Automatic annotation (TrEMBL):
Entry superkingdom: Eukaryota
Keywords recorded for this protein, A-Z: Nucleus
The keyword Acyltransferase belongs to this UniProt entry's keyword annotation: no
Record's subcellular location: Nucleus
Protein's UniProt keywords contain Nucleus: yes
Cellular component per GO, a single term: spliceosomal complex
Pfam families: BUD31
Protein name: G10 protein
Gene Ontology biological process terms from the UniProt entry: mRNA splicing, via spliceosome
Family under the similarity heading: Belongs to the BUD31 (G10) family.
């Protein structure tokens, strides 16, 4: 008889510590996506979505690189499952990357 494979994802150790924050951010993301876009320019309608996406990535980045509160296994799990943006974090890891990114984001918001 063949083995039955389930589609359950096995969460790594430490997941229960970051799960509530990620769930809250996911709920905010759903609200931002379902929010009405009446009277807003196309780019203005996307700002809340980008902000929440960056906030999730920043949360994972800080936990792993700055505070060192999560293990590499959990960090990679979050990246693989789409809880954080790999490319954005790669940009922040570069020397001066985060400061340059904040500066560029500031000027993009002003325009």
């Amino acid at each position: 008889m063949p083995k039955i494979k389930t589609s359950r994802v096995k969460y790594p150790e430490g997941w229960e510590l970051i799960e509530p924050t990620l769930r809250d951010l996911e709920a905010k993301m759903r609200e931002a996506e379902n929010d009405t876009h009446d009277g807003k320019r196309k780019c203005e309608a996307l700002w809340p979505i980008f902000r929440i996406s960056h906030q999730k990535s920043r949360y994972i980045y800080d936990l792993y690189y700055r505070r060192k509160e999560i293990k590499r296994e959990l960090y990679e799990f979050c990246l693989d499952q789409g809880y954080a943006d790999k490319n954005l974090i790669a940009k922040w890891k570069k020397v001066g990357g985060l400061d340059h990114f904040r500066h560029a984001l500031f000027w993009a918001c002003i325009k």
